[in-house]
Amino acid sequence: MKIAVLKERAAGETRVAATPETVKKFIGLGNEVAVEKGAGASASITDEAYGEAGAVLGDAAGCVKGADIVLGVQAPDVALLSGAKPGAWVAALFDPFQQNDRVEAYAKAGLEALSMEFMPRITRAQSMDVLSSQSNLAGYKAVLATADEYGRAFPMMMTAAGTVQAARCFVMGVGVAGLQAIATAKRLGAQVSATDVRPETAEQITSLGAKAIFAEGLEAAGEGGYAAELTDEQKAKQAELVSEHIAKQDLVITTALIPGRKAPVLVTDAQIATMKPGSVIFDLAVAQGGNVEGSKPDEVVVKHGVKIMGYSNTPAHLPADASALFARNHFNFLSAFWDKEAGAPMLDEEIGDAIRLTKGGEVVNARLKG
Known about the structure:
about 30% helix
Protein backbone atom coordinates (compact mmCIF):
# COMPACT_ATOMS: atom_id res chain seq x y z
CA MET A 1 0.00 0.00 0.00
CA LYS A 2 0.99 3.60 -0.45
CA ILE A 3 0.76 5.89 2.59
CA ALA A 4 0.96 9.64 2.06
CA VAL A 5 1.92 12.25 4.65
CA LEU A 6 1.27 15.88 3.76
CA LYS A 7 2.49 19.15 5.20
CA GLU A 8 -0.09 20.64 7.55
CA ARG A 9 -1.73 23.75 6.13
CA ALA A 10 -4.00 24.94 8.94
CA ALA A 11 -2.96 28.26 10.48
CA GLY A 12 -0.69 27.76 13.48
CA GLU A 13 -0.37 24.00 13.01
CA THR A 14 3.22 22.94 13.63
CA ARG A 15 2.74 19.18 14.03
CA VAL A 16 3.22 16.43 11.47
CA ALA A 17 1.38 13.12 11.21
CA ALA A 18 4.40 10.82 10.81
CA THR A 19 7.97 10.83 12.05
CA PRO A 20 11.03 8.99 10.74
CA GLU A 21 10.39 6.41 13.47
CA THR A 22 6.87 5.61 12.25
CA VAL A 23 7.82 5.88 8.58
CA LYS A 24 10.37 3.14 9.13
CA LYS A 25 7.79 0.99 10.91
CA PHE A 26 5.22 1.44 8.15
CA ILE A 27 7.81 0.46 5.55
CA GLY A 28 8.58 -2.58 7.69
CA LEU A 29 4.97 -3.67 7.16
CA GLY A 30 5.57 -3.63 3.41
CA ASN A 31 4.29 -0.17 2.53
CA GLU A 32 5.59 2.70 0.45
CA VAL A 33 5.55 5.97 2.40
CA ALA A 34 5.53 9.29 0.56
CA VAL A 35 6.20 12.46 2.54
CA GLU A 36 5.71 15.97 1.23
CA LYS A 37 8.90 18.00 1.33
CA GLY A 38 9.05 20.27 4.35
CA ALA A 39 6.27 18.39 6.17
CA GLY A 40 8.28 18.03 9.36
CA ALA A 41 10.18 21.33 9.33
CA SER A 42 8.13 23.03 12.05
CA ALA A 43 8.53 19.93 14.25
CA SER A 44 12.33 19.97 13.78
CA ILE A 45 12.30 16.96 11.43
CA THR A 46 14.35 17.36 8.26
CA ASP A 47 13.60 15.92 4.84
CA GLU A 48 16.93 14.09 5.10
CA ALA A 49 15.72 12.30 8.23
CA TYR A 50 12.62 11.10 6.40
CA GLY A 51 14.72 10.02 3.44
CA GLU A 52 17.09 8.05 5.67
CA ALA A 53 14.06 6.28 7.14
CA GLY A 54 13.06 5.19 3.64
CA ALA A 55 10.39 7.71 2.71
CA VAL A 56 9.94 8.99 -0.83
CA LEU A 57 9.93 12.79 -0.81
CA GLY A 58 7.98 14.92 -3.23
CA ASP A 59 5.34 17.61 -3.69
CA ALA A 60 1.78 17.22 -2.39
CA ALA A 61 0.32 16.01 -5.68
CA GLY A 62 3.04 13.43 -6.18
CA CYS A 63 2.69 12.11 -2.65
CA VAL A 64 -1.08 11.76 -2.86
CA LYS A 65 -1.15 10.22 -6.34
CA GLY A 66 -2.23 6.61 -5.99
CA ALA A 67 -2.29 6.76 -2.18
CA ASP A 68 -4.33 4.16 -0.32
CA ILE A 69 -4.02 5.95 3.02
CA VAL A 70 -3.38 9.61 3.81
CA LEU A 71 -2.28 10.53 7.34
CA GLY A 72 -2.82 14.00 8.74
CA VAL A 73 -2.95 15.87 12.00
CA GLN A 74 -5.79 18.10 10.83
CA ALA A 75 -7.78 16.77 7.90
CA PRO A 76 -6.52 18.22 4.60
CA ASP A 77 -8.82 19.97 2.17
CA VAL A 78 -10.40 17.58 -0.30
CA ALA A 79 -8.81 19.51 -3.18
CA LEU A 80 -5.40 18.22 -2.08
CA LEU A 81 -6.55 14.61 -2.30
CA SER A 82 -7.80 14.43 -5.87
CA GLY A 83 -5.07 11.99 -6.93
CA ALA A 84 -5.70 9.45 -4.17
CA LYS A 85 -7.23 6.07 -4.98
CA PRO A 86 -11.03 5.85 -4.93
CA GLY A 87 -12.15 5.05 -1.39
CA ALA A 88 -8.76 5.98 0.10
CA TRP A 89 -8.61 6.28 3.86
CA VAL A 90 -7.81 9.65 5.42
CA ALA A 91 -6.99 9.41 9.13
CA ALA A 92 -6.78 12.77 10.92
CA LEU A 93 -8.60 15.19 13.20
CA PHE A 94 -11.83 16.23 11.47
CA ASP A 95 -13.66 18.25 14.14
CA PRO A 96 -16.81 16.50 12.83
CA PHE A 97 -19.43 18.37 14.85
CA GLN A 98 -18.17 21.80 13.76
CA GLN A 99 -16.92 21.01 10.25
CA ASN A 100 -19.99 19.49 8.63
CA ASP A 101 -19.14 20.90 5.21
CA ARG A 102 -15.74 19.19 5.23
CA VAL A 103 -17.27 15.84 6.17
CA GLU A 104 -19.83 16.20 3.36
CA ALA A 105 -17.05 17.08 0.92
CA TYR A 106 -15.17 13.91 1.85
CA ALA A 107 -18.29 11.85 1.27
CA LYS A 108 -18.89 13.48 -2.11
CA ALA A 109 -15.28 12.78 -3.10
CA GLY A 110 -15.69 9.09 -2.29
CA LEU A 111 -13.05 9.15 0.44
CA GLU A 112 -13.25 7.23 3.70
CA ALA A 113 -12.76 9.76 6.48
CA LEU A 114 -11.47 8.29 9.75
CA SER A 115 -11.86 10.75 12.61
CA MET A 116 -9.11 10.10 15.13
CA GLU A 117 -10.88 12.19 17.81
CA PHE A 118 -13.77 9.69 17.70
CA MET A 119 -11.48 6.87 18.84
CA PRO A 120 -13.46 5.03 21.54
CA ARG A 121 -12.09 5.24 25.07
CA ILE A 122 -11.63 1.54 25.59
CA THR A 123 -8.60 -0.28 26.94
CA ARG A 124 -7.33 -1.67 23.67
CA ALA A 125 -7.58 1.71 21.94
CA GLN A 126 -5.59 3.67 24.53
CA SER A 127 -2.41 3.60 22.45
CA MET A 128 -4.38 5.01 19.48
CA ASP A 129 -6.06 7.85 21.39
CA VAL A 130 -4.77 11.12 19.98
CA LEU A 131 -6.93 13.22 22.27
CA SER A 132 -5.27 11.73 25.34
CA SER A 133 -1.73 12.00 24.03
CA GLN A 134 -2.20 15.60 22.94
CA SER A 135 -4.16 16.62 26.06
CA ASN A 136 -1.34 15.34 28.23
CA LEU A 137 1.08 17.75 26.57
CA ALA A 138 -1.52 20.53 26.58
CA GLY A 139 -1.96 20.32 30.35
CA TYR A 140 1.80 20.54 30.82
CA LYS A 141 2.20 23.47 28.43
CA ALA A 142 -0.71 25.36 30.00
CA VAL A 143 1.08 25.46 33.35
CA LEU A 144 4.39 26.51 31.80
CA ALA A 145 2.70 29.30 29.86
CA THR A 146 0.90 30.43 32.98
CA ALA A 147 4.16 30.42 34.95
CA ASP A 148 5.79 32.53 32.26
CA GLU A 149 2.96 35.08 32.35
CA TYR A 150 2.71 35.14 36.15
CA GLY A 151 4.80 37.89 37.72
CA ARG A 152 5.79 35.86 40.75
CA ALA A 153 7.48 32.56 41.62
CA PHE A 154 5.61 29.27 41.97
CA PRO A 155 7.41 27.67 44.94
CA MET A 156 7.88 28.94 48.47
CA MET A 157 11.34 30.44 48.81
CA MET A 158 12.95 31.26 52.14
CA THR A 159 15.67 33.85 51.69
CA ALA A 160 17.68 36.23 53.86
CA ALA A 161 15.49 39.00 52.50
CA GLY A 162 12.29 37.27 53.54
CA THR A 163 9.94 34.48 52.47
CA VAL A 164 8.24 34.22 49.11
CA GLN A 165 4.91 32.43 49.52
CA ALA A 166 4.00 29.56 47.21
CA ALA A 167 1.53 30.34 44.45
CA ARG A 168 -1.96 28.89 44.76
CA CYS A 169 -3.07 27.04 41.62
CA PHE A 170 -6.63 25.82 40.99
CA VAL A 171 -7.24 23.27 38.21
CA MET A 172 -10.82 22.98 36.96
CA GLY A 173 -11.55 19.73 35.16
CA VAL A 174 -9.59 16.59 35.94
CA GLY A 175 -9.29 14.71 32.69
CA VAL A 176 -5.96 13.91 31.05
CA ALA A 177 -5.02 17.58 30.65
CA GLY A 178 -6.14 18.48 34.15
CA LEU A 179 -4.18 15.67 35.78
CA GLN A 180 -1.03 16.69 33.93
CA ALA A 181 -1.62 20.32 34.90
CA ILE A 182 -1.88 19.30 38.56
CA ALA A 183 1.31 17.25 38.37
CA THR A 184 3.23 20.02 36.59
CA ALA A 185 2.10 22.76 38.96
CA LYS A 186 3.09 20.56 41.91
CA ARG A 187 6.53 19.96 40.41
CA LEU A 188 6.97 23.72 40.09
CA GLY A 189 6.18 24.12 43.78
CA ALA A 190 2.66 25.57 43.77
CA GLN A 191 -0.05 24.76 46.30
CA VAL A 192 -2.53 22.97 44.06
CA SER A 193 -6.24 22.31 44.37
CA ALA A 194 -8.60 20.88 41.76
CA THR A 195 -12.26 20.22 41.09
CA ASP A 196 -14.40 18.18 38.72
CA VAL A 197 -18.04 17.20 38.38
CA ARG A 198 -17.13 13.52 38.58
CA PRO A 199 -16.63 12.47 42.23
CA GLU A 200 -14.48 9.49 41.25
CA THR A 201 -11.69 11.91 40.29
CA ALA A 202 -11.14 12.95 43.93
CA GLU A 203 -8.79 10.03 44.51
CA GLN A 204 -6.80 10.94 41.40
CA ILE A 205 -6.45 14.52 42.62
CA THR A 206 -5.22 13.57 46.08
CA SER A 207 -2.86 10.92 44.69
CA LEU A 208 -0.98 13.76 42.96
CA GLY A 209 -0.68 15.70 46.19
CA ALA A 210 -3.39 18.26 45.44
CA LYS A 211 -6.47 19.20 47.45
CA ALA A 212 -9.80 17.99 46.04
CA ILE A 213 -12.56 20.64 46.02
CA PHE A 214 -16.06 19.28 45.42
CA ALA A 215 -19.61 20.58 45.81
CA GLU A 216 -21.76 18.28 47.92
CA GLY A 217 -24.09 16.07 45.92
CA LEU A 218 -22.68 17.15 42.56
CA GLU A 219 -22.20 14.36 40.04
CA ALA A 220 -22.22 14.57 36.24
CA ALA A 221 -20.31 11.66 34.76
CA GLY A 222 -20.89 11.17 31.05
CA GLU A 223 -20.03 8.56 28.43
CA GLY A 224 -16.47 7.57 27.62
CA GLY A 225 -15.04 9.09 30.78
CA TYR A 226 -16.10 12.63 29.87
CA ALA A 227 -18.16 14.91 32.07
CA ALA A 228 -21.83 15.34 31.20
CA GLU A 229 -23.54 18.70 30.85
CA LEU A 230 -24.75 20.06 34.19
CA THR A 231 -28.34 20.87 35.05
CA ASP A 232 -29.17 24.44 36.09
CA GLU A 233 -29.24 23.37 39.74
CA GLN A 234 -25.86 21.66 39.42
CA LYS A 235 -24.43 24.70 37.67
CA ALA A 236 -25.53 26.88 40.58
CA LYS A 237 -23.85 24.57 43.10
CA GLN A 238 -20.63 24.50 41.10
CA ALA A 239 -20.66 28.27 40.65
CA GLU A 240 -21.05 28.80 44.40
CA LEU A 241 -18.12 26.48 45.10
CA VAL A 242 -15.92 28.20 42.52
CA SER A 243 -16.80 31.67 43.78
CA GLU A 244 -15.71 30.77 47.30
CA HIS A 245 -12.46 29.17 46.22
CA ILE A 246 -11.28 31.18 43.23
CA ALA A 247 -10.91 34.45 45.14
CA LYS A 248 -7.99 32.92 47.04
CA GLN A 249 -6.17 31.66 43.96
CA ASP A 250 -3.23 33.12 42.05
CA LEU A 251 -3.48 30.78 39.08
CA VAL A 252 -6.40 28.97 37.46
CA ILE A 253 -6.25 26.34 34.70
CA THR A 254 -9.58 25.38 33.09
CA THR A 255 -9.84 22.22 31.00
CA ALA A 256 -13.54 21.33 30.72
CA LEU A 257 -14.86 20.09 27.38
CA ILE A 258 -17.98 18.15 26.40
CA PRO A 259 -17.65 16.42 22.99
CA GLY A 260 -19.89 17.99 20.37
CA ARG A 261 -20.88 20.91 22.61
CA LYS A 262 -19.64 24.43 23.21
CA ALA A 263 -17.26 24.48 26.16
CA PRO A 264 -19.13 25.18 29.43
CA VAL A 265 -18.45 28.51 31.14
CA LEU A 266 -16.78 27.78 34.48
CA VAL A 267 -15.45 31.21 35.42
CA THR A 268 -17.60 34.32 35.08
CA ASP A 269 -16.59 37.95 34.94
CA ALA A 270 -17.91 38.45 38.48
CA GLN A 271 -15.69 35.64 39.73
CA ILE A 272 -12.67 37.04 37.91
CA ALA A 273 -13.27 40.35 39.66
CA THR A 274 -12.74 38.67 43.06
CA MET A 275 -9.23 37.49 42.17
CA LYS A 276 -6.07 39.37 43.11
CA PRO A 277 -4.51 41.68 40.50
CA GLY A 278 -1.67 39.88 38.74
CA SER A 279 -3.41 36.51 38.86
CA VAL A 280 -3.43 34.43 35.68
CA ILE A 281 -6.10 32.18 34.16
CA PHE A 282 -5.28 29.75 31.34
CA ASP A 283 -8.33 28.60 29.38
CA LEU A 284 -7.49 25.32 27.65
CA ALA A 285 -10.96 25.25 26.08
CA VAL A 286 -10.70 28.70 24.50
CA ALA A 287 -10.82 27.30 20.95
CA GLN A 288 -14.15 25.60 21.69
CA GLY A 289 -15.86 28.70 23.05
CA GLY A 290 -13.97 28.95 26.33
CA ASN A 291 -14.46 28.05 29.98
CA VAL A 292 -13.67 31.62 31.01
CA GLU A 293 -15.89 34.59 30.24
CA GLY A 294 -14.02 36.98 27.98
CA SER A 295 -11.16 34.67 26.97
CA LYS A 296 -9.87 34.95 23.40
CA PRO A 297 -7.71 32.47 21.46
CA ASP A 298 -4.01 33.41 21.31
CA GLU A 299 -4.52 36.69 23.18
CA VAL A 300 -3.77 37.81 26.73
CA VAL A 301 -6.90 39.61 27.91
CA VAL A 302 -6.68 41.68 31.11
CA LYS A 303 -9.89 41.97 33.13
CA HIS A 304 -10.01 43.39 36.65
CA GLY A 305 -6.23 43.19 36.74
CA VAL A 306 -6.31 39.45 35.98
CA LYS A 307 -4.59 38.06 32.88
CA ILE A 308 -6.69 35.58 30.87
CA MET A 309 -4.97 33.55 28.18
CA GLY A 310 -5.31 30.43 26.07
CA TYR A 311 -3.97 28.97 22.84
CA SER A 312 -6.15 27.93 19.92
CA ASN A 313 -3.89 24.89 19.49
CA THR A 314 -1.92 24.20 22.67
CA PRO A 315 -0.18 20.95 21.58
CA ALA A 316 1.22 22.80 18.56
CA HIS A 317 3.36 24.79 21.02
CA LEU A 318 5.29 21.55 21.67
CA PRO A 319 5.58 20.39 18.05
CA ALA A 320 8.36 17.82 18.33
CA ASP A 321 6.87 15.78 21.16
CA ALA A 322 3.29 16.34 20.02
CA SER A 323 4.19 15.04 16.55
CA ALA A 324 6.03 12.02 17.97
CA LEU A 325 3.03 11.00 20.05
CA PHE A 326 0.48 11.72 17.31
CA ALA A 327 2.52 9.71 14.81
CA ARG A 328 2.72 6.75 17.21
CA ASN A 329 -1.05 6.94 17.71
CA HIS A 330 -1.45 6.65 13.93
CA PHE A 331 0.93 3.71 13.70
CA ASN A 332 -0.58 1.92 16.70
CA PHE A 333 -4.01 2.32 15.15
CA LEU A 334 -3.18 0.98 11.70
CA SER A 335 -0.73 -1.73 12.77
CA ALA A 336 -3.22 -3.15 15.30
CA PHE A 337 -5.47 -4.15 12.40
CA TRP A 338 -2.80 -5.08 9.89
CA ASP A 339 -3.55 -8.23 7.90
CA LYS A 340 -0.23 -9.62 6.65
CA GLU A 341 -1.82 -11.71 3.91
CA ALA A 342 -3.87 -8.80 2.56
CA GLY A 343 -1.05 -6.31 3.15
CA ALA A 344 -3.60 -3.84 4.49
CA PRO A 345 -5.40 -2.94 7.72
CA MET A 346 -8.81 -4.51 8.36
CA LEU A 347 -10.76 -2.45 10.88
CA ASP A 348 -13.02 -4.29 13.28
CA GLU A 349 -16.62 -3.24 13.79
CA GLU A 350 -16.25 -1.58 17.21
CA ILE A 351 -13.46 0.81 16.34
CA GLY A 352 -14.24 1.08 12.63
CA ASP A 353 -17.84 2.14 13.20
CA ALA A 354 -16.78 4.58 15.90
CA ILE A 355 -14.27 6.57 13.84
CA ARG A 356 -15.52 6.15 10.26
CA LEU A 357 -17.32 9.30 9.13
CA THR A 358 -17.82 8.63 5.42
CA LYS A 359 -17.87 5.61 3.12
CA GLY A 360 -19.25 4.87 -0.33
CA GLY A 361 -20.17 8.49 -0.97
CA GLU A 362 -22.23 8.88 2.21
CA VAL A 363 -21.89 10.13 5.77
CA VAL A 364 -22.20 6.93 7.79
CA ASN A 365 -21.26 7.81 11.37
CA ALA A 366 -24.17 7.33 13.78
CA ARG A 367 -23.09 10.27 15.96
CA LEU A 368 -23.40 12.64 13.01
CA LYS A 369 -26.58 11.16 11.60
CA GLY A 370 -28.35 11.11 14.97
